[in-house]
Amino acid sequence: GCHEEVLLGKYCHHLSIHKEVEDKDGYVYVNKGGRPRQHLLSLTRRAQKHRLRELKLQVKAFAEKEEGGDVKSVCLTLFPLALRARNEHRQADELEAMMQGKGS
């Protein structure tokens, strides 16, 4: 893995650079028009919202069914788990500490 120190705010950008290196052509998916898709983290917030619409609806449905509708807690739990799945334990620890500091 990568042992570079990265500020939490810059972490997503840092991760996206790794992703581009990992995906040899830089783009995994191709849009309907045959254009390569931009990396999720490089999109505008509006485009990100559009791209993740289906997932957001699934998360919302799960949260309503299993967690009393608490979408925020589901998402805040997912992020550190995703980091740990990639062995990014220090980043996950930082994130959890930051989230506890901010309260609910």
UniProtKB/TrEMBL annotation:
PROSITE patterns: NBD, ZF_RAG1. It holds the Pfam family zf-RAG1. GO terms for biological process: adaptive immune response; B cell differentiation; chromatin organization; T cell differentiation in thymus; V(D)J recombination. InterPro entries: RAG1 (IPR024627), RAG1_Znf (IPR019485), RAG_nonamer-bd_dom (IPR023336). It catalyses: S-ubiquitinyl-[E2 ubiquitin-conjugating enzyme]-L-cysteine + [acceptor protein]-L-lysine = [E2 ubiquitin-conjugating enzyme]-L-cysteine + N(6)-ubiquitinyl-[acceptor protein]-L-lysine. GO terms for cellular component: DNA recombinase complex; endodeoxyribonuclease complex; nucleus. Residues 1-22 form the RAG1-type domain. Its cofactor is Mg(2+); Mn(2+). Keywords: Chromatin regulator, DNA recombination, DNA-binding, Endonuclease, Hydrolase, Metal-binding, Multifunctional enzyme, Nuclease, Nucleus, Transferase, Ubl conjugation pathway, Zinc, Zinc-finger. The keyword Nucleus applies. Residues 33-100 bind DNA. Residues 33-100 form the NBD domain. Its EC number is 2.3.2.27, 3.1.-.-. The NBD (nonamer binding) DNA-binding domain mediates the specific binding to the nonamer RSS motif by forming a tightly interwoven homodimer that binds and synapses 2 nonamer elements, with each NBD making contact with both DNA molecules. Each RSS is composed of well-conserved heptamer (consensus 5'-CACAGTG-3') and nonamer (consensus 5'-ACAAAAACC-3') sequences separated by a spacer of either 12 bp or 23 bp. PANTHER family: V(D)J RECOMBINATION-ACTIVATING PROTEIN 1, VDJ RECOMBINATION ACTIVATING PROTEIN 1 RAG1. Belongs to the RAG1 family. Homodimer. Catalytic component of the RAG complex, a multiprotein complex that mediates the DNA cleavage phase during V(D)J recombination. V(D)J recombination assembles a diverse repertoire of immunoglobulin and T-cell receptor genes in developing B and T-lymphocytes through rearrangement of different V (variable), in some cases D (diversity), and J (joining) gene segments. In the RAG complex, RAG1 mediates the DNA-binding to the conserved recombination signal sequences (RSS) and catalyzes the DNA cleavage activities by introducing a double-strand break between the RSS and the adjacent coding segment. This is V(D)J recombination-activating protein 1. The lineage of its organism: Eukaryota, Metazoa, Chordata, Craniata, Vertebrata.
